[in-house]
Amino acid sequence: MNEDPVAPTPEDTALDADAPVEQEERNNRIFLCVVDNTVECRNAIYFAARRTARTGGRLALLYIMEPAEFQHWMSVEEKMREEAREEAEGFLQQYSSEVQEWTDEMPTLYLREGKPSETLLALIEEEPRISILVLGAGIDKKGPGPLVSSIGVKMSGKFPIPITIVPGNLSQEQLDMLT
Description:
With 179 residues, the protein is an alpha/beta fold. A five-stranded parallel sheet has the order 3-2-1-4-5, sandwiched between helices. The protein has one domain (32-178): Rossmann fold (3-Layer(aba) Sandwich), CATH 3.40.50. It has helices at residues 23-28, 39-55, 74-103, 116-126, 146-154, 172-178, and strands at 30-34, 58-65, 108-113, 130-137, 163-167. Helix 2 (39-55) crosses helix 3 (74-103) and helix 2 (39-55) runs parallel beside helix 6. The radius of gyration is 20 Å and the shape is globular. Helices cover 45% and strands 18% of the residues.
């Protein structure tokens, strides 16, 4: 038996918490927020923006337009899709301006159409640098929201990346303290 044990050096251990993360790796990480018009969405975006500013990485915003249910007349469906797209672009512009104010960085913007869970998973598969999903949890009696319920609860054990769920009732000051 060796009486002079040698502790491994940080270079020998893959999980050394104090080891510096390469700046390039940190800047390649993408924090993804799904955008809508709720208070909890704004909290999630603010939280993610603060985290990227403090820890490195980029922020991406995803707006998912759900497919139109009304398909009897093509012109009506096209008009509905056009209006939904304008609304989505408005939200993305609004939030990207705020992110730029908070971080001095412009976020990456994604606008997709489809079922939210499927569309989100497809984007994560398509863009391997997305390393964390940040969602806002609603505070009303209906629950945390359909996406948080679907992904944060039902799929969390099988989801391909970590999920951060930001409570919608936190103030900006509370979020500042957490980030």
